[in-house]
Amino acid sequence: MKADRAPIPVFIPLFIGIIAISFSSIFVKWSDSPVSVQAMYRLMITAIMMLPFAGKYAGDARSLKRSEWGLLALSAAMLALHFLLWMGSLQWTSVASSTIILALQPVFVMIGAYLWFKERTSLGALFGMSIAFLGVFLLIGSSGFGGQEGHFKGDLMSLLGTAAVAVHMLLGQLLLRRLPSFLYSWLVFVMASLILAVYNQIQGYSFTGYSGREWGIFLLLAIVPTVFGHLLFNWLMKFASASTVSMSVLGEPVGASVLAFLILHETMYPLQAAGGALVLLGLILFLRVGASPKRPKEFEQKGAA
């Protein structure tokens, strides 16, 4: 149990956070800008919002070794790749399919932790993971049965983007052993936005000239799913167990699917729905038994949508 008592019932900010991260894919779908530009400004605006609080960590930043800067750069590159793949997947597949696959993030982290840190997990977690991946195969395979053109490409991009963010989080697990979580997040956001800026320059994408509507979407991406989503979950960790907050990963595909149905008029085909149900069932089993007890609490609940 937590020593601190939340000033309001925990379920209220948890519900707000789930709704907030569920809007991430909706904002991406609304935008007409290249996804790499959306991702760049989302991270850049978030980093600017965090800047007034970053000064007190200057000493920690100066004490970083060259190898640690290298790991930070690699972590940022994986975060940038995640945004390119996952946000790009929404151009090809449905919100429901993309976010359900993204919810496999804890499973990918567990696999990486086993290969990298030799962390063990239970048979129950492995059983849940197997069910979840069976659902993913059904989801991706359903692209030939009434799915939209390019559905397979979009689902595969979401799967690869999920693997990329898992590598980002595992690198963070190493760095958080000596870095404050705020400083780590801020440095990674800054570096990832710079990586995306270089990518956009190479691709010839404009940095300016976007409509007021597009700038509004960039701002919404920074504020809603980041501040009222992931940062709110970080705050909740002071009052609720990691397992409770971790279950929010199941809320995003459900919330995003409902929002996509109401706002974008998207629907799911029967095989897609069956695959999605299997993924969520597998994740419930996986999260309930506790897959990675050694993982720092900062990474037991974070998502990167």
From TrEMBL:
InterPro entries linked to this entry: AA-Vitamin_Transporters (IPR050638), EamA_dom (IPR000620), EmrE-like (IPR037185)
Domain EamA intervals: 14-140, 153-287
TM region positions: 7-27, 39-57, 69-89, 95-117, 124-145, 157-176, 183-203, 215-233, 245-263, 269-287
Presence of the UniProt keyword Membrane in the record: yes
Compartments reported by the entry: Cell membrane
UniProt topology in membrane: Multi-pass membrane protein
Primary site of residence: membrane
UniProt name for this protein: EamA domain-containing protein
Species of origin: Paenibacillus lactis 154
